Amino acid sequence: MLQRSRRRCEGTAMGAVVLDLRPGLGIGPFSLGMPISEAFAQIEQQPSIYDVVHVKYYEEDPLKLDIVISFPDHGFHLRFDPWSQRLRLIEIFDVKRLQMRYSNSLIGGPSTLATFVAVYALFGPTFPGIYDRDRGVYTLFYPGLSFAFPIPNQYTDCCHDGEAELPLEFPDGTTPVTCRVSIYDSSSDKKVGVGSLMDKAIVPPLPSGSLFMEEVHVKLGEELHFTVGGQHIPFGASPQDVWTELGRPCGIHQKQVDQMVIHSALDPRPRSTLCADYFYNYFARGLDILFDGQTHKIKKFVLHTNYPGHADFNSYIKCNFLVHGSDLAESFQEVNDSKQKITTSTKWDQVKVLCFLIYGFLYFFCLALFSWMSNRKVICLPKGNNLEDTHNSSCLPSPWVSIYIVMACSRLNNALFRGLLNTTHSDTIDIKNK
């Protein structure tokens, strides 16, 4: 589990923060179902309150376990579903560090102990809870809310057959103090608590017509199709077409390029320059669109997965894309078959297999071509795009030629080509025209 932290100069004393408790909905500015980007926005708006923040995720497989935003000074953390990146569970793991307000009454914090009797008096009667003998914890449930109480060994007999008389008081007149509070969506009517009960918390359903995590169908070499809004954005579309379909972009910037040429040691030209091509950025859709600077037509789409640990994490909302073929679509006809599509959850090993099955003939052709050229020291290719223009040609070593031919012939996008060459995971997938 990788943990990243941030500390600011200014801070807030323990227990000085009071957050409104909303059972089944959220706490303070954090609401169940909110995207992780909105949670970060709330944190940035109140730096004096949320001055210490830890972001945790499973580095080996970030889609396997929750993404967690933790506030150790305030004793609570937010658990986000790793696939949708929406808030599914709020846990107060140190009730003494956080004071909560419910129905104009305060509970928790260093001054107001959240005892069993106090909780029962504030939230009212409910059904008997569940006693976990292995953990020694008794959990009391309300709709969208649960309280966990540790039970000392000498008082376990107070919980007969997993239940206890409410409100729970021990023979010596004391009552247990809450050790953990869980806030979760109540629409599924599941009981969420500590241990295995924590996994039962689910993300609340999206409202009808929501564009968040809208499925985007990608036809290689043809278009993007947005399934909720119904928009079709083909290659070759103009900026006016994009504005009409998707609205005003969040940002526009020129493309920074690193020229893919062999430079002479005496060549004074800079190796990194600005070209005329430009991007439309749609951060809320997880999408960048690259336009040709001369024709002002779409030449590439960049789809972002908002992958934890990547440099662009939290810059874009996750794009829920589904990639299938066009004229070679026979291998992708069954788009509902998870083995025959590429999505945000597809791993590189699976991508490589799909690419090999579809484009294996090209791979073997390039290997054969490279083998043939390996017997030649040098081959001359024109600098221009016209292969018949032999004037002003440039000599390239044969390995460079083979890569040039692969990139020129392949109908894969950049990300698929990188996957075929066994590179590491990328936060983005680039969809280029034919």
Characterization of the model:
- By secondary structure, the chain is of the alpha+beta class.
- 16% of the residues lie in helices and 30% in strands.
- It has six helices and 26 strands.
- The strands form five sheets. The protein has a nine-stranded antiparallel sheet, covered by helices on one side. Strands 4-3-2-9-10 form a five-stranded mixed sheet, covered by helices on one side. A five-stranded mixed sheet has the order 17-16-15-22-23.
- A hairpin with a 2-residue loop joins strand 3 and strand 4.
- The longest helix is centred in the C-terminal third of the chain and has 26 residues.
- The two termini are 41 Å apart.
User: Would you count the extended β strands for me?
Assistant: 26
Q: How far from one another are the termini?
A: 41 Å
Largest sheet: number of strands, sense, barrel closure: 9 strands, antiparallel
Q: Structural class, from secondary structure content?
A: alpha+beta
Radius of gyration: 28 Å
How many helices in DSSP terms?
Answer: 6
Average the pLDDT over all residues and give the rounded result.
77
Low-confidence stretches: 5-12, 260-265, 326-336, 374-425
Indicate how many domains the architecture comprises: 2
Which strands sit side by side, in order, in the main sheet?
A: 1-5-6-7-8-14-13-12-11
Fraction of residues in β-strands: 25-35%
Principal-axes shape call: elongated
Proportion of residues in helical segments: 10-25%
